[in-house]
Amino acid sequence: xxxxxxxxxxxxxxxxxxxxxxxxxxxxxxxxxxxxxxxxxxxxxxxxxxxxxxxxxxxxxxxxxxxxxxxxxxxxxxxxxxxxxxxxxxxxxxxxxxxxxxxxxxxxxxxxxxxxxxxxxxxxxxxxxxxxxxxxxxxxxxxxxxxxxxxxxxxxxxxxxxxxxxxxxxxxxxxxxxx
Length: 179
Known about the structure:
By secondary structure, the chain is of the alpha/beta class. The protein has four helices and seven strands, in the order αβαββαβαβββ. It has helices spanning 18-21, 45-52, 89-99, 115-121, and strands at residues 34-37, 56-59, 79-82, 103-108, 126-130, 146-151, 159-162.
């Protein structure tokens, strides 16, 4: 049974702020040129940051008729990066692993739990854990920790710790110095 992305839970549409994207940059392998953001509109902060860092970005979103779970994969891309709907994170993870491409998904840290995901993560996963929770809506921090789950040869099996800086507006492929 196919599950469309549209009309999933009401809290699935959380917009990623710039300061939650920038720590990911230094973990993107050097050979990555084209990034597919399958749950992002062209004006998302994820897309903005990646484009500003020189990546070619393919942005697709369910509102534009591009349902990641049922959409044919683009012909050429090197990596998937997105903040997917959390209510269907298992289906998103399955699709990402089936793509056989590196990926980075912004997910609740509790996504590490569960026997189904455990079997998937045995294929390789790394995690960037932040020093605080991401404020998705400007009303204060979220009630749960959200981290980047990364599947690349350089990150698999590793745990990384990064600081979030809500005032940061400068970024490049190497990330930034928090001091």
